[in-house]
Write a structure and sequence with these properties.
Two copies of one chain form a homodimer. By secondary structure, chain A is α+β, with helices and mostly antiparallel strands. The first copy, chain A, has three domains: 10-94, Rossmann fold, CATH 3.40.50.20; 123-183, Dna Ligase, domain 1; 189-354, ATP-grasp fold, B domain (D-amino Acid Aminotransferase, Chain A, domain 1, 2-Layer Sandwich). Chain A is 29% helix and 29% strand. Chain A has helices spanning 18-29, 60-69, 82-89, 98-105, 107-116, 130-140, 167-173, 229-245, 279-282, 287-296, 322-326, and strands at 10-14, 33-38, 51-54, 72-75, 120-121, 124-127, 144-148, 158-161, 179-183, 189-197, 203-205, 209-214, 217-223, 250-259, 262-269, 308-315, 331-335, 346-354. In chain A, the strands form three sheets. In chain A, strands 5, 10, 11, 12, 13, 14, 15, 16, 17 and 18 form a ten-stranded mixed β-sheet that branches. In chain A, strand 12 and strand 13 (217-223) form a beta hairpin. In chain A, helix 2 (60-69) crosses helix 3 and helix 4 (98-105) packs across helix 5 (107-116). Chains A and B meet through helix 1, helix 11, strand 17 and strand 18 of A and helix 1, helix 11, strand 16 and strand 17 of B.
């Protein structure tokens, strides 16, 4: 890494959803301009970005023009086609790096990577055929969960195998996509840790949050999580191992199961993470600014929590509650400006500050 | 006022400086788009706005197109030409209203208005000629301060009259602009109060901040101010009188002198105010979002302070300190993305959270 990025420089962001939107705002707060690359029309991030390119990821001329127009590139999601990255990387640096992205894009590679670091993951088995699945169910047992190796999010691309005779319908649900069978983990809590690493190897973590999901989508994150200091330290140490091993630059989100046998890694995301949204109202430097600071080579915020927070996602017609939520004291609204309310669509979130 | 403005609507903002920039970010947080109208190229607010119109205030076609493209109009500064407002107001509502703007645009009208409400102002006298000034200096005494009636900001358009023989140079400094002579106020502190009023008459205030100026420009605002509860209540009551009398909708900043004879109003600004920037890191709903909520007819935030804050402006080559400031714990950076560092130019600010 060279000099820190100078205020006034332009950061290119792949993806124009709510994460790109909140990254844009954070970048602006540090005096950077942002340029969004997004295939969809009217991306939420476009409302707060300096420039928007609307083009598909296979438009290599548009990708090249985008890379030429910016000073560095980051992304808000992990499913960027490899060929697009090849084009971009020829022109400008991308953070977090390709290895982080490749590792998180494939559940098998991710789990093998985590295991290689000595971190615990759920029992898993590679599934390429019905007979693979039949064999795996015998070893791993039921209940278990079948997931596509790639492109899954918010509970999509998943099927539960509650008993051996769910195998055929479960396999059919995957529509021949390469998959992984994961054993159920008997956990007391789900937590996540949002960590950041700068180019000099500096690491900073936010306090772990406790997550509750509904219908496969994050519902709330509560800070502080009901975990011991030792568990919190474990979370920090394992996030640091991942960051260091990947020579990672940027913010990383790691989802963890708390079990009597210790912390088990569910998955990690090489980006800002929904379970880190609480930092907007809990910390002086939030996860979005932390990511920008990291990739720009600026000093990281220290992650200190000034307020306890409960973050709640606003999904689909939760938007009907906005007027009422706007009246609640100690409640910060963060809406994404999405035109269409859809069932299961993340429309915004609130951060409730917990006052004693 | 009709229905509350719906998320997804577009708010037009006259002026593309740092206040417009922070208003844009706040509007986006509530799901609104913003459209900036600004004569200057590459306005700071343009980095975080959906749309920018670059045109002078006498381009009535551009003003009309702007008004047609937005759902309502607000502004970040008070020196908007009357003719431009006439054009805009034909098409879309403007908040705060014309009377608030007209009153604050002229120091004589402002002081007469404040006096008519029974609020205290410094002794003042209208100056249209050198003999007016000579007479006024005899009545008001020295030291006194001569200010242009209109278009002054950050100490510009002001001359100190320290002794009767400063009268001629002081008068020359005004370059024939209609002016006002103000008597010096012997104050112990300068404070300001940031207050908001919604269309239904709902009022909310932030805690008064204590201001320190340097070279006529705000240097720091410290919250809480060193004032008594009674003084704080007085500040709230007088802000509410101004808001109600003007049938005001939006955020108002009122600068006050604390004296043994009570609070004396220095001036008010019909907009978000530099001395309210601390709310970004002290409150769940900051002054920018409060303004957007007010003009959109949304419920106001209650103004509650979660953190004590010292705000410090970064002026001109204070930008050289950014790298060092970025390392400070408990310190939030807010940079405006201005390309050129100029002496006396507001480039950003920091909010230091005071931890006990």
């Amino acid at each position: 890494m060279n000099e820190p990025l100078k205020t006034g420089a332009t950061i290119g962001i792949l993806g124009g959803g709510q994460l790109g939107r909140m990254l844009s705002v954070a970048a602006a707060r540090l005096g950077f301009k942002t340029h969004i690359f997004e295939p969809g029309e009217n991306p939420p991030a476009g409302d707060v970005a300096h420039t928007v390119t609307t083009a598909p990821y296979d438009d290599h001329a548009a990708l090249t023009a985008f890379a030429n127009a910016v000073d560095m590139i980051t992304y808000e999601f992990e499913n960027i086609p490899t060929a697009a990255l090849d084009v971009l990387e020829k022109t400008k640096p991308i953070h977090p790096n390709r290895r982080a992205l490749a590792t998180s894009q494939d559940r098998i590679i991710e789990k093998e990577f985590l295991s290689s670091l000595g971190l615990k993951v759920a029992p898993f088995s590679k599934i390429n055929s019905l007979s693979d699945l039949q064999t795996a169910v015998k070893t791993i047992g039921t209940p278990a969960i079948l997931k596509t190796r790639r492109f899954g999010y918010d509970g999509k691309g998943q099927a539960r195998i509650m008993a051996p005779n769910d195998v055929e319908t479960g396999f059919a649900d995957m529509a021949d996509a390469p998959s992984v069978l994961e054993g159920f983990v008997n956990f007391s809590l789900e937590i996540s840790i949002i960590a950041a690493r700068g180019p000099s190897g500096e690491i900073a973590c936010f306090d772990p949050g406790e997550n509750v999901h509904r219908n496969g989508i994050l519902h709330t994150t509560t800070i502080p999580a009901r975990i011991s200091n030792a568990q919190s330290t474990d979370a920090v140490l394992l996030a640091a191992r991942i960051l260091n091993e990947l020579d990672y630059v940027g913010v990383l989100g790691v989802e963890l199961f708390v079990t009597p046998q210790g912390l088990i890694v569910n998955e990690f995301a090489p980006r800002v993470h929904n379970s880190g949204h609480w930092t907007q109202n809990g910390c002086v430097v939030d996860q979005f600014e932390q990511h920008i600071r990291a990739i720009a080579g600026w000093p990281l915020g220290d992650g200190k929590r000034h307020n306890d927070v409960v973050m709640e996602n606003l999904i689909g017609d939760d938007m009907d509650r906005v007027n009422e939520l706007a009246r609640e004291p100690n409640t910060a609204l963060h809406l994404y400006g999405k035109a269409d309310v859809k069932n299961g669509r993340k429309m915004g979130h609130i951060n409730r500050i917990v006052t004693s």
